[in-house]
Amino acid sequence: MTNRLFDFGMIGLGVMGRNLLLNMADHGFSVIGFDKDQSKNEALEQSATPGTTVKGVQDLEEMISLLQTPRKIMMLVPAGKPVDDVIESLLPLLDKNDVIIDGGNSHHTDTLRRVEYLQGKQIQFMGMGVSGGEQGARFGPSMMPGGNAEAYELVKPMLEAIAAKVQGVPCVDYLGKKGAGHYVKMVHNGIEYAIMQMISESYSLLKHGGLDNTQLHEVFKEWNDGKLQSFLVEITAEIFTQKDDKGPGYLIDVISDKAGSKGTGKWTSQDAMELPVAVPAIDSAVAMRTISSYKDERKLASTLYPDPYKSSPASTQEWISHVHDALLFGTILSYAQGLAMLAQASIEMEMDIPLPKVVNVWRGGCIIRSTLLEVFSKAYAKDAALPNILLNPELAEMVNSAVVNTRKVVSQAALSGISTSALMASLAYFDSYRSEKMPTNLVQAQRDFFGAHTYQRLDISGSFHTEWGK
Hints:
With 470 residues, this protein is of the alpha/beta class. It folds into 3 domains: 167 residues, Rossmann fold (3-Layer(aba) Sandwich), CATH 3.40.50.720; 249 residues, N-(1-d-carboxylethyl)-l-norvaline Dehydrogenase, domain 2 (Orthogonal Bundle), CATH 1.10.1040; 25 residues, no CATH class. The protein is 54% helix and 9% strand. The strands form 3 sheets. Strands 3-2-1-4-5-6-7 form a 7-stranded mixed β-sheet, with helices on both faces.
């Protein structure tokens, strides 16, 4: 076996790296992994399906020598300097046209720099977002590769084999030049932040409406059988059934409300502002995770600012229906903002991101997979150049049918002092986006008043400045 030439190599055998290799091996590819930790190499080999060809080594040079050429190597190491360190350790060992894939959550600017750097050394580099967690990696992830197009063709058969499938179509495709793969994954994660925040807000609204955990489970389970069908709604329903193994009651009721974050949502907000593109639902979700960390301050503030009078909705069932529509509305708006960001970034950064392929890749395997992506797929099939999916007439019907109850929910929440930041932000975005005329003409007048920034007129072309008050 030591003389065998392997199809694919992996650097970093944590849970994701190991599971991706095992997935490849199950599809008939011979795979080899490298990790300095021998226990991880052993875990890889011990987890392999009998009859598959899987090997773990502690020596990087040994792994490189055992790979077929052109070599196909993937890294799953922490973003930042560790990626650059691995690349530098590989360069003396590689030949012209070998392929390196960064499958971690690197920032797209780092990926672009590495694409250009390695192109000069005749090494093919790709940045690839991978979504689906450890189970997805093992049995079918969603993968978002970008960068060197020739490199993708070399690894395409392997990636298509291991990807999640929807109606027989693999949830992987070439998603553009330069840092496109990691850019798409970053925006994916931003949308994920927004939808998770809106689900938590819906949970809060229903809980304030008097539902207990058993009823919450039933509501989210029913929602997952309809227009809201998605991975996140599905796991939310399941969360409400989990009993606490360290005490009485349900686990959800003893989990701290301080939410963690790994930074990709923040990157989405920062990059959107740089373009600029408005993504207020994502911005709000990032902000709410930050505010959640102010636990001691929030505890004190709760004693200084009492809850307003909470009026109850007409009936529980009516309230459930209203919150359903608000979550549907907010989820659509989250995708709309993220996809609009990809559309603009594709042009501004010359990445040529194909949005029809993006939504198809997201249909299965990834955290934001949802039945709504089928609707978006049809929208892009009619017009691949849509700057915003809200401009699709069929989707507009769905949004119009949900917005009335969304307004009722947001109004009720505001009157009752229930924080629904992401839902409110989405409604504000929607009302601004659908407005032929916004009040920002006054903002422009103010800018010209104090800073002589000039303004444009509706009736005469050109730029103008006024000496205000004279």
